[in-house]
Amino acid sequence: MINGQLTPHFFARWDNTQPFTYLGVGKIINYIDGNPTVYSDGRPTKNIKLTLTFEEASNILPPSKEGDNQASFALEKYLEEFIVSNWNNLDLGKQYDRHEEEVDGKRKKSRTDTGEIDIFAISKDKTEYLVIELKKGRASDGVVGQILRYMGYVRKKVATPNQDVKGLIIALEEDLKMRWALNEVPNVTFSRYQINFELINE
Question: How far apart are the first and last CA of the chain?
């Protein structure tokens, strides 16, 4: 990890009563082996002191609220990478295949005329498209309009008349405005993510 042969993903917390927050991929720019420190009971010990830099350090979320047993992904792109990398191990992968191109071995996100779809999938039986929109923290009612735009594009430009289009919003939490909006949009559902990435359908 120190010599750059491994890609380090870092988590941190600011006191031991808080859950860990995912900081992202960091680069070690300096380290001190044998750095003197103490255990919680005051006994002396040593550790490795690392100095890190994060490309998107300004986007790192503050620590979660006390008592919250969830930790949020600092950036949506890390949440996205986690889902894509573990697709076959998630319940989503049992029902859907990702419907995205790869160019030179790299995933290419599906584009609409109003933006990119975070994750685009199709059911195993090819009868249904799924548009997935990700939010790293709390999802507001604005995301409902966003995902409906993408779904409308897919229905008009991609799907055949006998194929359905559904939407899934994944976020750490929702607000009341979004919940009321989703009551009127039966083709869009919401799931919360947890640090072990169990998806909780609500």
Answer: 39
